[in-house]
Amino acid sequence: MTGIRQLANHLQLSIGTVSRALNGKADVNAKTRERVLEAAVELGYVPNQSGRSLRKGTTSTVGLILTQGNSLGENNDNFFFGVIHGLQTALKRHKLDLVLLLCSRDEDPDSFLQRMVAQRIVDAVILTATRTHDERFEILRRANMPFVTLGRSDSLGDASWIDLDFEGIARASVRRLCGRGHKRIAVAVPNVDANLGPLFLEGYRQGLEDCGLPFDEAIVFRAETSEEGGYDVAGKVLETADRPTAILLIAELMSVGLYRRLGEAGLLPGRDLAVIAERESPVGRFLLPRLTCFRLDLDALGRMLGEMLLSNLPAFAESYQDVPKGKVWPLELVEGESDPPLFA
Amino acid sequence: MTGIRQLANHLQLSIGTVSRALNGKADVNAKTRERVLEAAVELGYVPNQSGRSLRKGTTSTVGLILTQGNSLGENNDNFFFGVIHGLQTALKRHKLDLVLLLCSRDEDPDSFLQRMVAQRIVDAVILTATRTHDERFEILRRANMPFVTLGRSDSLGDASWIDLDFEGIARASVRRLCGRGHKRIAVAVPNVDANLGPLFLEGYRQGLEDCGLPFDEAIVFRAETSEEGGYDVAGKVLETADRPTAILLIAELMSVGLYRRLGEAGLLPGRDLAVIAERESPVGRFLLPRLTCFRLDLDALGRMLGEMLLSNLPAFAESYQDVPKGKVWPLELVEGESDPPLFA
Question: A61-164+297-329, which class in CATH?
């Protein structure tokens, strides 16, 4: 098999140039890249990931684990795409590649991770969709595989993590709604074991307490974090004795179904039920009325997540000593049209 | 470094059992798996992807290439999640893993692919977001990397492909709308170079011809295939002299923005502008009125895509001789509430 040295000799180019050409770097001109690739085929050079892997003892690849069959992951397309862009920015500095590993809906997330770890497709992983008690932390520790997590968990231990400020936005939402005249405020949280549910509820409780409003389990709704979940929640709100005048939704997609269900009942979102949802998204921006929600800088979050991971990799840790060990990520309110004052 | 043989000897288990335990197979009981993983850590066994790679000369990993910064890819979350499930089903039969490779929005899709190929992170790839003229086919051919594509292109050559029946659904939509009394039917297609645009337009033309309706370039709208794109298209529809009474949308997310823009103008989707969109999705199902659209079996499509790829891999080709070389994937109309008869 022709190696990179033979290829460089044949082309009378430096190994560095050939390597950069093979790796599609921008600092190699198009003509040179063309020459290198043609010669590679001609001489039977097989750019070999295995060679690279053995030499460094690593794959130079980081895996982001996404979990399907969990509407929290599945419906968060633009969330993950945003985060991934920032992640790649951080990882690219050190020529690390990012791959997404998808745990399909008929596989257990723990066994899936175990399989990925055993096969060493990647050198390090980023966990998402953390559960309050989550076995995966232990699996990674046992395998000595570096990792960071997007989401908190009781199983965190000394792992590095970033999580959205779920308590903060729930609390701020209740206070905002109360300030606008609402005294009976419902909340919708996930019906699956996801650590963000209890956090969101805790902020909701604090907000009620701040406003001197009672907590009523009857208007805490647990549902799928999807359009359908929102539709179901709206149905239940309509059936509630002493109907709430406002609701907080943990996921913006829920608002699509909620809007429809209100419409079917001849009610208008906003006017007849004030709505605040967790996160700004294109769908929420184009609903009528536009959703009041919370915005965050996904790209910056992704970059910090990447840097946190780098601070956990021996080869790069030194450059990332300033990166925090854990971070509650702030979100900022975006005023929409879905939560007007009660008696406007 | 401790290899799998030493590990098996130490545990007095067969190499097969140890391998299955390390790979998280269900047929190894939990206690044995525990023992194997503990011993692996104790003896310093590093399950080594490189070893595996060298032995077979492969990585046993297949990459699905997704392109960001292209609203067609970015907004098609539930589309890709559905396809991926089927893909994994087919690939798992042969212990091939699927990873997603994301071309970020500031990277050129051609250089991205070139980089992935040069680094041999995967043995084979699945292309998506094909352009009418697409350099990537040539890149893969030059590198001798097996591939299949989700989407057609003029650059296909002898590559295996699956694509949705864009001509068919556009044609059927025009005929349906005409049958419901519409004589002036607009269409919205992507404003980027994506091969599905011309296909959709061709079906639209054929439908008009079938119905004896004239083609009018003034009501062919090119826009981003997103909520915002739909909002813009609706704005243009409202400004059109001799306003269309119906519209076909190439992407269902466009309907969210279109509904909002009509609402802002005091108009009702369905009653004031009939709408048919390409593909069934949760958002469309919960819009009011519910979208009329087209459904396909994503899981079956993903499985066939996987089988097509297997038929292109020398190690597995023999078992997949019956898999077609190309396939126009059928879609079925799902009646919604967004395209009632014109004078109902």
Answer: alpha beta
Residue range A166-295 in CATH 3.40.50.2300: yes
Residues in chain B: 344
C-alpha dihedral, A111 to A113 to A115 to A117, nearest 10°: -150
B61-164+297-329 and B166-295 agree in CATH topology: yes
Residue B344 has what pLDDT? 60
- Residue B214 per-residue DSSP state: P
List all residues of chain A from 157 to 196 with a beta carbon under 8 Å from chain B: none
pLDDT of residue A45: 62
Backbone phi, psi, residue B334, to 5°:
-115, 115
Class (C level, CATH) for B4-47: mainly alpha
Q: Domain residues of chain A, as ranges?
A: 4-47, 61-164+297-329, 166-295
Would you call A151 exposed, middle or buried from its count of C-beta atoms within 10 A (0-12, 13-18, 19+)? buried
For chain A, positions 17-76, list CB contacts with chain B under 8 A. Answer: 22-24, 26, 33, 37-38, 41, 46-50, 52-54, 57, 59-61, 63, 68, 74-76
Statement: residue B28 has pLDDT above 90: no
Picking from A74, A119, A228, the nearest residue to B97 by CB comes out as A119
Which among B47, B75, B84 is the nearest to A120, CB-wise? Answer: B47
Share of chain A above pLDDT 90, in %: 65
Q: Cβ contacts (< 8 Å) between A36 and chain B: which residues?
A: none
Mean pLDDT of chain B: 88
Pairs of residues, one from chain A and one from chain B, whose beta carbons lie less than 8 Å apart: 193
